[in-house]
Amino acid sequence: MSLSFHIDFNGQCEEAFSFYAEHLGGKIGTMLHVKDSEKIVHANICIDGVEIAGADVDSSRYEKPKGFYVLLGVDSEEKVWSYFNALQHDGHVVLAPQKTFWSPCYAIAIDRFGVPWKLNYVA
C-alpha cells in the first residue's frame, strides 16, 4: 500500500511542480498533458520521499486548497529559511520562521499557487 495526496490547480500545475522541483529539491515523475493542451491531467512529484500528485481542473470547479497543510520536515534551519523564502514569494506569510517549543525553526506560508505549507526543522 502507498499513500500520497492530490492537489487541484487552476491551470498552474506544471508551473507549480516545476517551482517545487527547483526550490524544494523535488523530482517530477509524471507530467501528462491533455492532448493538444497546456492543461495537466495528471502529474506527480516526490519531495524528500513524499509524493504529491496534482492536476489542473476547470476554473469553474477550482477551489483554493483549505483544511490542510503540506507539512515538510527538514534537517536544518537553513532549509526552513530557504524553502520559506521561495514559498512566500508572491504568496502569503502566515508565520515567519521562528523557534517554537517543538522546533528550533518553524514557519507557515501559502505559496502563490494557493498551496499551504508548514516547514518544520526536526533537530
Structure description:
With about 120 residues, this protein is α/β, with parallel strands linked by helices. It is about 20% helix and about 40% strand. It folds into 2 domains: about 5-55, 2,3-Dihydroxybiphenyl 1,2-Dioxygenase, domain 1 (Roll), CATH 3.10.180.10; about 70-120, Signal recognition particle alu RNA binding heterodimer, srp9/1, CATH 3.30.720.110. The protein has helices at about 15-25, 75-90, and strands at about 5-10, 25-35, 40-45, 50-55, 70-75, 90-100, 105-110, 115-120. Strands 1-4-3-2 form a 4-stranded mixed sheet, covered by helices on one side. Strands 5-8-7-6 form a 4-stranded mixed sheet, covered by helices on one side. Strand 3 and strand 4 (about 50-55) form a beta hairpin. The longest helix has 12 residues, at about 15-25. The chain is globular and about 50 Å long. It starts with a strand and ends with a strand. This is VOC family protein. It comes from Duganella flavida.
Structure annotation, total helices: 2
Stretches where pLDDT is under 50 for at least 5 consecutive residues are: none
CATH architecture level-2 label of the largest domain: Roll
Give me the count of strands: 8
Mean pLDDT: 95
CATH class of the largest domain: Alpha Beta
Strand order of the largest sheet: 1-4-3-2
Distance between the termini: 29 Å
Question: How large a portion of the residues is in β-strands, by DSSP E?
Answer: 35-45%
Structural class: alpha/beta
Helix fraction by DSSP (H/I, runs of at least 4): 10-25%
Query: What is the radius of gyration computed over CA atoms, rounded to a whole number of angstroms?
Result: 15 Å
- Main β-sheet: number of strands, strand sense, barrel status? 4 strands, mixed
Protein name: VOC family protein
Domain Glyoxalase/fosfomycin resistance/dioxygenase: 10-118
Pfam family, one: Glyoxalase
InterPro entries: Glyas_Bleomycin-R_OHBP_Dase, Glyas_Fos-R_dOase_dom
